[in-house]
């Protein structure tokens, strides 16, 4: 395992049992971070990620918590503190479920629930780690967003609207946290292959998505993880409040 400037930082990755979260957890661990693999339901998948990190010589632990639940998140951060120390890097990747439907067919409950739960999770997790980062004078916060927060796509109004709110929340937190040595950035990916969303969308959508990129393929979890690792590490120290489009050159605006 290569240590270096990243050595020993404690990184919490929410929703890390599969997809982008798992890829990010493995990459951060390979760069010397001590990684917390948060999961909601899939304990065996989270344990597999931890096992793969350990077998590669890294340090990791799995912790169950619903990131929408402030008490559960506080308990998770406490557990991490006892085992590894303060969380210095937060990658908030956990996906809050959402309805895929048109505005015409959508109920307020479907839109309102996604908005409320998306923002509550981001708020709760950030609140939980901010005091430790502030005390240490160092922090890296990376929020996972989506291209649909800028570029509307059919059926994605709940996801796109809630992630647009997340993007702006990140900018405000970045402004407030900057003087404390904490950076806050957003990685906004186009639809990613080998994830739960890709499974829902199916093959025709995959092909269409690949055709819409300059690079001619869909993103893979590792493509997104590399951008996450950049914002989670030392190389991005003078970047905050940024939104990185990991979209293969697919147009947004």
TrEMBL record:
Domain of life of the native organism: Bacteria
Keywords for this protein: Oxidoreductase
Molecular function via GO: oxidoreductase activity
Claim: Oxidoreductase is one of the keywords in the record: yes
Presence of the UniProt keyword Transmembrane in the record: no
InterPro entries, per database record: NAD(P)-bd_dom_sf, SDR_fam
Similarity section: Belongs to the short-chain dehydrogenases/reductases (SDR) family.
Name under which the protein is recorded: 3-oxoacyl-[acyl-carrier protein] reductase
Organism: Actinacidiphila glaucinigra
